[in-house]
From TrEMBL:
PANTHER family with a match to the protein in the record: HYDROLASE-RELATED, PHOSPHOGLYCOLATE PHOSPHATASE
Biological process annotations from GO: DNA repair
Name of the protein this chain belongs to: HAD-IA family hydrolase
Keyword Nucleotide-binding: no
Keyword line: Hydrolase
Pfam families per record: HAD_2
Sample GO molecular function, one term: phosphoglycolate phosphatase activity
GO cellular component, one term: cytosol
NCBIfam families tied to this protein: HAD-SF-IA-v1 (TIGR01549), HAD-SF-IIIA (TIGR01662)
Length: 222
């Protein structure tokens, strides 16, 4: 018997928030400041990880520069991302899900300071019953942030769905045996996401909205 959906946990960048392009630009800017080679593809590939892990993956040969590079990245991103916003349809999707009594949460590779800033920027703090940032727990794909959200909400794993655009999101959910939905309009391709056995993969926010509503309605038919 299918378990009812009570909680949907969303990744932020590339899933709800149209920020991937600016993240790549800011990482490239920071790398250039310290004469470190970095391609767009490499910068894009690490979106979803916590910042310390980003530095370790992208700049393994210069650990002494990690703090300075990350500061340069953060300063540039904050300055140039003020116009970034949700993907079209996200606001309507979230409010529709919430109106159906579904609990909403965020699990992100952003820092707490960064997450709080964009929650304020999108005026969406009240939409989410719980949020977890990589700076206050373990980075994806470790499932600790999901376990913490489940503990806060009192929801069982099988009654939750994780939604994300990267392998890190879906691997994190798989590591805790949580149902998961991929989105292909962010960072990783359908082929990459499919390796983590998601319920489905959405190519647009409209498709994601439909998929999530279908999952909710399935529980009502049982």
């Amino acid at each position: 018997m299918k378990k009812p959906v009570a909680l949907i946990i969303f990744d932020w960048d590339g899933t709800l928030f149209d920020s991937v392009g600016q993240i790549v630009k800011s990482l490239r800017f920071a790398a250039d400041q310290f004469h470190q080679p970095l391609t767009d593809e490499a910068a894009k590939s690490i979106i979803g990880l916590g910042l310390p892990e980003v530095a370790q993956v992208l700049f393994p040969s210069v650990p002494e520069l990690h703090e300075a590079i990350l500061k340069s990245y953060g300063d540039h991103y904050v300055e140039h991302s003020k116009e970034d916003k949700w993907f079209d349809g996200v606001d309507e999707m979230l409010r529709d899900l919430k109106s159906q009594g579904i609990l909403l949460a965020v699990a992100t590779g952003k820092s707490r300071r960064g997450l709080d800033r964009v929650l304020k920027q999108t005026q969406s703090t009240d939409l989410f019953v719980a949020t977890r940032a990589a700076s206050e727990t373990k980075s994806k794909p470790d499932p600790l942030m999901l376990a913490e959200i489940l503990e806060v909400t009192g929801i069982d794993t099988e009654n939750a769905i994780m939604v994300g655009d990267t392998s890190y999101d879906l691997e994190m959910a798989r590591n805790i045996d949580m149902p998961r939905v991929g989105v292909s309009y962010g960072v990783h391709t359908v082929d990459v996401l499919a390796q983590y056995q998601p319920i489905d993969i959405a190519n647009t926010v409209a498709q994601l909205h439909t998929i999530l509503n279908q999952q909710i309605q399935l529980k009502e038919a049982v």
